[in-house]
Amino acid sequence: MNKSIQLKSNFNEKQIQILEVAETLFAEKGFDGTSIRNIAKVAKINVAMVSYYFGSKERLLESLIVYRTSDLKNQLDNLLQEDLEPIDKINKLIELYINRINSNRGIYRILHFEFTSKKREQNLQAFSELKKGNLKSLETIIEEGQKKGIFRKDVIIPLITPTILGTFFHFHMNKPFFENLLNLKTEDLYNNYIKTNLTKHIQQTIKALLIYES
Amino acid sequence: MNKSIQLKSNFNEKQIQILEVAETLFAEKGFDGTSIRNIAKVAKINVAMVSYYFGSKERLLESLIVYRTSDLKNQLDNLLQEDLEPIDKINKLIELYINRINSNRGIYRILHFEFTSKKREQNLQAFSELKKGNLKSLETIIEEGQKKGIFRKDVIIPLITPTILGTFFHFHMNKPFFENLLNLKTEDLYNNYIKTNLTKHIQQTIKALLIYES
DNA sequence: ATAAAAACTAAACAGTTGTTTGAATTAAAC
DNA sequence: GTTTAATTCAAACAACTGTTTAGTTTTTAT
């Protein structure tokens, strides 16, 4: 059996079954807060299967990241090649980010939570490359807008991603607080608020920051 | 030695010693990732002392939050009463937030990490009240600016805090990435970047979002 | 100096942790 | 149909978890 990290998503059904349960539990209770026995119970498999298929709990996490983040780059490249005004590209990029993170909440929560501490820095490499690529795409769009004289030139481009993603994450990480504050009683209301108001707020913010007013 | 400093909190020296070690370790490795024996070893105390002084590991966390967040409200109230233009108040508020979080990274990292999962919702009450108070202060300032015709009226006020704090957190949570990207080789350079560029970026962003342009 | 209270300790408790083992079952190859 | 390989399993492993206990030392009050 192949216990090494698999770069493409050539996971078999059993592995995917384990990965998806792990995603749910890691997202819910954190990596350290989730035990292999817990995963095994929910996935209805034997405890030994995690070691058998992935080698270790740590490598299960690595595999999960590969499994979930392999196609973001393509989506971004497609966006770049569309024939749109820079500001519309930015708006679409924000929408893409939020949609993607919102419909893959589990893995992004895990990434957000687990990949900050020093102890997982060795696994950070692939994730870091992904982030650099994303930044490059954003940079391309903004420089295009600056050349056209539409965008200001005194913005710090690498800090725009933190504003986009940070706003979303901070909102989402404080879900119970905002559910209560904004009366979003059902999951549907909450999701709808993200899709409309939160997305609009972020777009409005980034636009205000970028657009040059004479 | 200097007992006059701890006028407010009713924790004794030993408790504070434990709390500060716990803060460091919880921030570094998370609540679940830190064991009582680990805390005891670093704090050079017996394992039983945590139970003795705080009752349980969970209650140690609660005490830590009380110990670290008890004086934020006063700082905000003082700011509100200053005689400043709304936009200057906003800028000062952003500076206050960032300074405070930045010099209490440990506890805010813990709050950020531990108080999102459902399982700690019972401890969430006090923290939630603190956040609501903070939002009220921000609201007061913004409404003042709107009355004066300086601020736009179509901004969603509860989403401004996520933009301020989210930007900072996302930057700080991805510290290794940005250290590398922006060549912030020393801790001093990193801190300086936060104090100048990141703070300015956030102020610039919020100003752009708020200021009404005819 | 003596008694009561507080602080501290090593050891034990009962669970849980990630991982490995060796045998049993199933599937694939011949 | 037999052999070989892949999969699954219960059980065991040693290490670690939060907490309690019962006894000792230190501090405080009288």
TrEMBL record, chains A, B:
Portion annotated as DNA-binding: 35-54
Pfam families given in the database record: TetR_C_29, TetR_N
One of the record's GO molecular function terms: DNA binding
Swiss-Prot/TrEMBL keywords: DNA-binding
Gene3D superfamilies xref list: Homeodomain-like, Tetracycline Repressor, domain 2
Superkingdom assignment: Bacteria
Domain HTH tetR-type: 12-72
Protein name: TetR/AcrR family transcriptional regulator
Organism: Flavobacterium sandaracinum
